[in-house]
Design a protein that fits this description.
globular; binds alpha-D-ribofuranose; alpha/beta; nine-stranded mixed beta sheet; 35% helix; 11 helices; UDP-N-acetylmuramoyl-L-alanine:D-glutamate ligase; single chain
Amino acid sequence: MAPRITVVGSSNIDIVVKVERIPRPGETIIGGDFVMVPGGKGANQAVCAAKLGADVTLVARVGDDAFGRMSLENFEKSGVRTDYVIIDSEHPSGIALIAVDSKGENSIVVAPGANHALAPEDVENAGSVIAESDVLVVQLEIPSETVRRAIELAKLLGTQVILNPAPIRPLSKELLEQVDVLVPNQHEAAHLVGEESSERLDPQQAARLLRDLGVRNVIITLGAAGAFVLAGSEEMFIEAFRVQPVDTTAAGDAFTGALACAIAEGSRIVDAARFAAKVAAISVTRMGAQSSMPSREEVNAWNF
Ligand code: RIB
């Protein structure tokens, strides 16, 4: 039986332009043609896990507009269950404006729209699905009270919780104590441990500090430098797979979605992180967010 995952999170349409470099404040630059692709951290993670073979239910809100319909079509095509994707007639779909430079690095501005109306009650309505799930995945592109309720409910129902704290905001010790696996990138980890910048972040020290705050397991993703894993008493660096990046948008979502899939299948956290690093590496060789997520067959056949 396929492992079951519930993702509570955002859904956007990404409007992406390739540029030579990210513009400075006040500067106008000419880019390439724009493309519109389904995105949003929650939806990206859901699509990633579903394409890898998990049985995934997404709890999200989209607007009653062309963007919302485009997202729904892609969920159905990718095998994501949409029973708890609410079509919100009062708010437009979330939109992300993304510039991707010649090295594949990006800058993103999100207009959250309907994502900011995703309410604790929307999560409660999906309680029976969360109860049957092996893993609940949540990020921070939705209201804080909805994140809190999702985590609280999953813990009550005996479902493991993976939190990808992106985009970062302050998190209480009480919330962190309920998280089974925290997956920040180095910037988010720096913020959570009170460092001003991620430049001098020692991932091992940061992971230990986060464990002291009550998180059971921590995986800090480090881009091309791989990831640092603290799982119970085990600690190790996982090397990144070497690829030529085309677009790093949603690499963290590919990592989190794949990690959730492997943990739900019963993998040890360290092995799940190695698998997630492979899936994230494949995703950066392709343009777009959901469009960059590989199928299980593609992951198995991929040669680095
Ligand atoms: O993590 C990448 C995602 O962030 C994009 O798809 C964009 O929609 C924003 O949510």
